[in-house]
Design a protein that fits this description.
Strand content: 5-15%
Helix content: 40-55%
Length: 432
């Protein structure tokens, strides 16, 4: 019988026990987990600041960014002391496994092993890897080179669709294109658009195509339901409805609660003020858009390591996600000044908190959106990336990756996610 520590109660993916004594069960992974558990526990207990980490986790069942950085620094120092400045992959993996075994609520339930945000052995990424690279750079020791896995760029991935019966080709397809262009019957337009879906996807993914999808299928510009219809044909109705089913009822409140624990700033306070219906003289966004911007604040843009690419704030990145035009102002004048091709949500109304019309801006073209709420409008904005095969704006990549994998559950495990995305998912999904 081996004694363990009472901080851990249960971590069913790796261990199984009912009390503070560990019974031998003959499982090799079980022994490995306990070895890693004790290694991390000893490293933190031997450091004067380790007690603060245990206290915060015991109280909140998570770790703040500052406390997580402190833990990573302690463990990397312990790792390099034991294994040298370039620890083997097995050591890095052991420490990552030890973290989520010791602190089970830090596990990411959507990743392969639950600890990839601390160390991903396939990509050599994660908080431990990043800290090791900093230590190596400061000591002029080169990083251990490894090949990187090939993640697919989800919105631009050519994929097999799930609802493509009755597709038209050849002369029948050409006839349908003519009907789509000239018909005034919305039901006919939707029917023919459905029947030409495969042709449209080939056009969108053809890098040598001379015509844009809007030139061949101009009804996208005046028929709001077509984006949602194409997305449903790609993924099915169940996936298509996940954001509207899960964001308002679950994720929105989780994001608001997580944001309230962030260090205060004028921008953060402005967003949080929208959650108070009694707030006076409030001229910000409604609570739904504000909650989305809070998620962006939790997953701020990074410089991606490019020295020439300056890091922008989450407030600046918000301008790439949603913009406002006052009712009565010239939409054409606004469009003349638009200088981005990636999709964003254009809101028109008397005030930002009272939006009357929505447009999805794609390739500098306004697509009308029939959504009655900003949540439903954002749902269409997200789907537009996949329907038109457009990459996420770089400043919004972590934000959209979270929405894609955690809310829509699209390409989970096959999409590149930053450790911060995985950490936030673990934090929100594990919170009680």
């Amino acid at each position: 019988m081996i004694h363990i520590f009472p901080q851990i109660i249960c971590f069913t993916k790796y261990v199984c026990f009912k009390c503070t004594c560990l019974l031998v069960c003959g499982n090799e992974l079980y022994y490995l987990s306990m070895f890693c558990f004790q290694m991390v526990h000893s490293a933190l207990r031997s450091n004067p600041k380790g007690e603060e980490i245990f206290k915060e986790y015991d109280k909140t069942k998570t770790l703040s960014d500052a406390t997580r950085r402190q833990m990573v620094n302690i463990l990397v120092a312990d790792m390099t002391s034991a294994y040298g400045r370039i620890p083997p992959i097995s050591a890095r993996t052991s420490y990552a496994l030890g973290i989520v075994t010791l602190f089970p609520y830090l596990q990411d339930p959507y990743s392969k092993n639950g600890f990839e945000h601390y160390y991903d052995p396939d990509a050599n990424s994660g908080y431990l890897a990043w800290r090791l690279k900093t230590v190596q750079r400061n000591t002029n020791v080169g990083a251990h080179l490894r090949s990187r896995p090939e993640y697919q760029e989800s919105p631009r991935t050519k994929r097999d669709s799930v609802l493509i019966d009755g597709q038209l080709f050849g002369e029948e397809c050409r006839e349908a294109l003519s009907i789509i262009r000239h018909s005034t019957d919305k039901s006919v337009i939707k029917e023919k658009m459905r029947a030409t879906f495969e042709y449209r996807q080939k056009l969108i993914h053809d890098q040598d195509a001379t015509l844009s999808v809007f030139e061949v299928f101009p009804r996208f510009l005046d028929t709001p339901e077509l984006i949602d219809q194409d997305f449903s044909m790609m993924f099915g109705d169940e996936v298509s409805g996940r954001f509207l089913a899960k964001w308002p009822s679950y994720f929105k409140n989780k994001v608001i609660a997580a944001s309230q624990r962030l260090p205060s700033s004028s921008y953060l306070e402005e967003l949080l003020a929208s959650m108070d219906p009694k707030a006076e003289n409030y001229f910000g966004w409604d609570s739904d858009i504000s909650a989305l911007l809070l998620l962006l604040h939790l997953l701020p843009p990074t410089s991606k390591g490019h020295k020439k690419s300056a890091k922008i704030s989450s407030a600046q990145a918000a301008h790439r996600l949603v913009r406002f035009v006052k009712e009565g102002a010239s939409l054409n004048t606004f469009l003349e000044k638009v200088d981005v091709r990636q999709p964003f949500l254009l809101c028109v109304g008397e005030q930002r908190k009272e939006i009357r019309r929505f447009f999805i801006m794609v390739d500098q073209k306004p697509i009308p959106c029939s959504a009655l709420t900003s949540v439903a409008a954002f749902d269409v904005l997200f789907k537009a990336h996949f329907v038109f095969s457009i990459s996420y704006d770089e400043a919004l990549s972590s934000f959209y990756a979270f929405i894609q994998t955690t809310v829509y559950n699209i390409d989970v495990g096959n999409t590149k996610e930053s450790p911060r995305v995985k950490e936030l998912r673990a934090r929100l999904l594990q919170e009680r």
